Amino acid sequence: MGNRDISRPHVFQAGSNSRVLLLLHGTGADEYDLLQLGRALDPEANLLSPRGMYLENGMNRFYERYSDGTFNEESIDLAVEELAEFIEVAIDHYGLREMPMTAVGFSNGANTAAALMVKRPELLAQAVLFGSTKPYREVQAVNLGGKRIWLANGDVDPYAPVSVSERWVSELSGFGASVSWLRHPGGHSVSPAHIQEISRDLA
């Protein structure tokens, strides 16, 4: 376990409602990257955006992947542990106790959000996953009753094959989560139509 402090690079923007959006960026981005997306999803939410602390060829990520593109699952576990610790510190530091937290991620950040949801479900009420795939080969059964998850992917996203998404949605639903699988015809990108739809759902 690391230090119980707030030193991890991050951005916090206070909102006017009682929702917290935990913004988790994609590879090569940083803690500023998803602020606009967060505001588009919920203009009144509190935004908490930490930086991924793993460096791959100088690019920020939340966890390591091997040279063939497969995920280092021990690195994912470490990322989840460090993120959970940061969240607990930030909740106290920024006065966010009793505010439901929704993880919002793109790509590497979305996979990390999904891992956080299945490993530390008590921290999250909801997860919005853009350009995301299943983070672990095998996921231990977990109670996700009452959790809401949006999986918003492109049908030709090389990082998120439709066949994997189909099984992943089925698995998450089997754990009790209410899952919306949104699809667009493009690739590894965020669809403006998906942003609008999820924003309406959140409202």
From TrEMBL:
Protein name: Alpha/beta hydrolase
Molecular function as annotated in GO: hydrolase activity
Residue span, Phospholipase/carboxylesterase/thioesterase domain: 17-200
Lineage: Bacteria, Bacillati, Actinomycetota, Actinomycetes, Micrococcales
Protein source organism: Aquiluna borgnonia
Keyword Hydrolase (UniProt): yes
InterPro entries, per the entry: AB_hydrolase_fold (IPR029058), PLipase/COase/thioEstase (IPR003140)
One of the Pfam families matching this protein, by short name: Abhydrolase_2
Hydrolase as UniProt keyword: yes
Keywords noted in UniProt: Hydrolase
